[in-house]
Amino acid sequence: MSADIFAGQGSDPDLLAELYDLEHDAVSADLVFYREMASRLEGPVLDLGCGSGRLFRAFLDGGASRILGVDGSAALLRRAEARIAADPVLAAAAAAGAITLHLADLRALPRLPVGEGVGLAVAAGVLPHLDGPGEALRVLAAIGPLLARHGRLVIDDVGPGLLPSRDLPLSVDWRRQLHGRKVVRRSSLMRREAPDGLWIAYSTITDTVRPDGTIARLPASHRLWYPYPEALERLVAQAGMRVELSYGSHDLEPPGPGSERRIVVVARAR
Length: 270
Ligand SMILES: C[S@@+](CC[C@H](N)C(=O)[O-])C[C@H]1O[C@@H](n2cnc3c(N)ncnc32)[C@H](O)[C@@H]1O
Hints:
Bound molecules: S-adenosylmethionine
Low-confidence stretches: none
Order of helices and strands: HHEHEHHEEHEEEEEHEE
């Protein structure tokens, strides 16, 4: 499996990245949570699978001294650069060397300049892209030693309340506008329950109107993995860390079967 989620999709990766932002930039329910986390944990923030840098501003607003954004998609990192250039606060931080972007596969992290250790590491929406427990353990085991003594890793994914309970046939997810032109996203999914978690084969077809009026059809597919809570806790322990807190939302609600998020705060083992 490639670290670039747009690799092998047979479509233009920059357009897929733009469409990705169209969908993900609408997500803002987590920004206060990340601002607060950054304000409580001194030291660099390591944004693992940072995508186009959606969370960077929240980290800076929380007082982060440095942000290291790591992602396997060159197209999404190009969008992160554009986001930084367009926001004076981000641009000033980047000019001062306080934001650095790293094109890398989380499963083979290069040496990162984290000084005395990372205060806050964030893996938001990233774990499901890994190919099951073996890869997740490799990634977690590489993150643990990067954390400062007081450092925390936040693993933040869709919770059980929003995971599909049955296969879904192709249907329209949303209709939006991009540069004043219509975009329609359709998706279908097939789920498989396994001892280590829920696997979802997720296919999307995005139709966009080109400037000349013709329609560009962009297919993409991902296999996603949502480990069960006990499976994730075991992996965290095997990686030499411990689950300190779990939340079911960015408002810090307790986790439950109907939770929209599964947020796990991980510390180094004592
Ligand atoms: C759902 S997006 C989340 C982006 C960002 N964390 C956010 O919350 O907006 C998942 C991100 O993980 C990245 N990713 C997935 N697998 C990766 C891997 N093996 N190595 C590096 N990045 C990866 C993708 O490129 C994508 O940017």
